[in-house]
Amino acid sequence: MSTVHEILCKLSLEGDHSTPPSAYGSVKAYTNFDAERDALNIETAIKTKGVDEVTIVNILTNRSNAQRQDIAFAYQRRTKKELASALKSALSGHLETVILGLLKTPAQYDASELKASMKVNAWTGNRRGLSH
């Protein structure tokens, strides 16, 4: 009986909670983070003939949202242009959509997705994202 209790304790709220909740997320802060270096690398990637999409994706997908906000701020300070605008001009299609989504704060992203889902399709009369 004692073994069952021990197992249930580990699986329940009564178990060991020494790991902080922030450790459970899938996106971790990049340990060697340098916003200025990342902003410079993204600027170089944008200016590269044909745009170095791999560098842009590797940097932005391996940083936390707070770090991406710092990169955007460093980019604007360095170039006097908004990072989102520069990326919008350099990228296209689904990659553009994903990268621009990554640059938003969680609240901004949620708001834009809610707004987009409520737009009525002029052709069908249906709302985007809703099936009728």
TrEMBL record:
It is found in: Secreted, Extracellular space, Extracellular matrix, Basement membrane. One of its GO terms (molecular function) is phospholipase inhibitor activity. It comes from the Eukaryota. InterPro entries: Annexin (IPR001464), Annexin_repeat (IPR018502), Annexin_repeat_CS (IPR018252), Annexin_sf (IPR037104), ANX2 (IPR002389). The keyword Secreted applies. It holds the Pfam family Annexin. SUPFAM superfamilies: Annexin. One of its GO terms (cellular component) is basement membrane. SMART domains: ANX. Keywords: Annexin, Basement membrane, Calcium, Calcium/phospholipid-binding, Extracellular matrix, Phosphoprotein, Repeat, Secreted. PANTHER family: ANNEXIN (PTHR10502), ANNEXIN A2-RELATED (PTHR10502:SF18). Belongs to the annexin family. A pair of annexin repeats may form one binding site for calcium and phospholipid. This is Annexin.
